[in-house]
Amino acid sequence: MITTTSLTKTYSSGAKAVHALNGIDLDIGMGMFGLLGPNGAGKTTLMRILAGIVNASGGSVHIAGHDVTTEAGKQAVKAMLGYLPQELGMYPELTAAQFVDYMAILKGLDDAKKRRQSVAKVLELVGLSEAAGRKIKGFSGGMKRRVGIAQALVNDPKLLIVDEPTAGLDPEERIRFRNLLVNLASDRTVLLSTHIVEDIGQTCRDVAVLARGQVLFRGSPTELTQAAAGHVWTLTAAGLEKPNHGLTIVSMLHLAEGTQYRLVGETADGHPAAQAVPPGLEDGYVWLMKSAGQSVEAL
Ligand SMILES: Nc1ncnc2c1ncn2[C@@H]1O[C@H](COP(=O)(O)OP(=O)(O)O)[C@@H](O)[C@H]1O
Ligand SMILES: [Mg+2]
């Protein structure tokens, strides 16, 4: 569905150049694809290029065979694309139905009758039929995000791009929202970006990890987990001194006998009491970042 080759993007902000993307090679097929990376990795930039909102500085992007660097290609892709930006401005005084209808008009759905049907259909799809006539200003974060998805779906896109849609949602809303995306991915491509590792574990068949505008990893969540095999330990320490010797603390748990640390690193030779444990997805991510010299504190 999507192929990028040596994709680069440089922003000139003042006198300084910001290299947001430094040669992205990616192949993205049908189903749900996760784009995972810390803040500033380049996720939004990549998505905006795919959506035809900003131009790449170099390299190529093809979506369903269309070259997005050409005007004709951009137009062809727009017709098959739904995009939920990281910050979607909504009009709080409009009802959900009015807002989605307004977005549908902007997308060129001119036939009023067909448009009404599409609006009702997408609001049903996201579970907002009941709330369709209510003003957006009274909605929860999760409901607003579902309005955002509804507007992205109103032209029945084959490609849905959603930028950090789970940020700021409470755990229950996040799970609901993730399940909605999984359902939507059954017959289209859904590209989801997130800085939250859990978001991709249960939901994405494939994932790319981005940092500093480069792809550090491309594979399944299971493969990402396995990348940390042999590099994860737990260690319970009674004192206040934190484990170090080049290890990164992934998590800690205060127990009666002391603090239990979960550690990721090259070797635990410096801590003879450390117990090797099987890796989890978050360990895989931390190990990958650490191996790439990316500060994990920035996560
Ligand atoms: N319009 C812009 N002008 C200048 N720099 C930008 C602009 N947008 C993003 N950047 C920079 O590009 C890098 C990647 O940003 P972004 O794509 O937003 O990453 P992410 O979505 O992964 O947080 C960051 O260093 C960011 O500060
Ligand atoms: Mg972003």
Strand arrangement in the largest pleated sheet: 6-7-8-3-9-10
Contiguous low-pLDDT stretches (5 residues minimum) are: none
Could you give the order of the helices and strands? Answer: EEEHEEHEHHHEHEHEEHEEEEH
Any idea of the CATH topology of the largest domain? Rossmann fold
Average pLDDT works out at: 92
Outline type? globular
Give a quick account of the main beta sheet: strands, pairing sense, barrel closure.
6 strands, mixed
Q: Structural class per helix/strand content?
A: alpha/beta
**Any ligands, ions or cofactors bound here, and which?**
adenosine-5'-diphosphate, magnesium ion
Write up this protein.
The chain has nine helices and 14 strands. The two termini are about 30 Å apart. The strands form three sheets. Strands 6-7-8-3-9-10 form a six-stranded mixed β-sheet, sandwiched between helices. Strands 2-1-4-5 form a four-stranded antiparallel β-sheet, with helices on one face. α3 (about 95-105) crosses α4. The chain has three domains: about 1-80 and about 155-220, P-loop containing nucleotide triphosphate hydrolases (Rossmann fold); about 90-155, no CATH class; about 225-299, no CATH class. The model has no long low-confidence stretch (mean pLDDT about 90). It is globular. By secondary structure, the protein is α/β, with parallel strands linked by helices. It has helices at about 45-50, 70-80, 95-105, 110-125, 140-155, 170-185, 200, 220-225, 280-290; strands at about 1-15, 15-30, 30-35, 60-65, 65, 80-85, 160-165, 190-195, 205-210, 215-220, 230-235, 250-255, 260-265, 275. β1 (about 1-15) and β2 (about 15-30) form a beta hairpin. The structure holds adenosine-5'-diphosphate (ADP) and magnesium ion. Magnesium ion binds next to α1. Magnesium ion (MG) binds near residues 43, 86, 163 and 164.
